[in-house]
Automatic annotation (TrEMBL):
Pfam families: Complex1_LYR_2. Belongs to the FMC1 family. It comes from the Eukaryota. Plays a role in the assembly/stability of the mitochondrial membrane ATP synthase (F(1)F(0) ATP synthase or Complex V). It comes from Mastacembelus armatus (zig-zag eel). This is Protein FMC1 homolog. One of its GO terms (cellular component) is mitochondrion. PANTHER family: PROTEIN FMC1 HOMOLOG (PTHR31716:SF1).
Length: 110
């Protein structure tokens, strides 16, 4: 299993995703206050090794992965599925191909 990034990096990543989702007023949302409260409540202290803190860190990293994946999925969905029915030439261009042409019934286009 790969090492988890630092809690500060995860917190910044979650806040970045919230900013992309809610716009400039993201710090007034309930999600922002909840995330910040949870990170403040579970920060590392030098007194003891806390298993709950490790679980919270793993959960926050999983949540960050969910937010990033959801945003990426929506971008891909809008790119490939939002245009309805397409003609064969548009479909070929979408995957990087070009349809052959046969001008006047003689040979292929150069």
């Amino acid at each position: 299993m790969a090492a988890l990034p630092s809690p500060l990096r995860v917190c910044r990543g979650i806040l970045k995703e919230l900013r992309l989702l809610h716009g400039p007023g993201y710090n007034q949302s309930l999600a922002y206050t909840y995330v910040m409260d949870q990170f403040r409540k579970n920060k590392v202290t030098g007194e003891r090794y806390c298993r709950a803190q490790q679980e919270a860190h793993h959960a926050s990293h999983s949540y960050l992965c969910l937010l990033e994946s959801t945003r990426s999925h929506l971008v891909l969905h809008n790119l490939y599925h939002s245009k309805g029915e397409r003609n064969p030439e548009q479909v070929a261009n979408l995957v990087g191909l070009r349809l052959p042409t046969q001008p006047g019934g003689k040979g292929w286009d150069k």
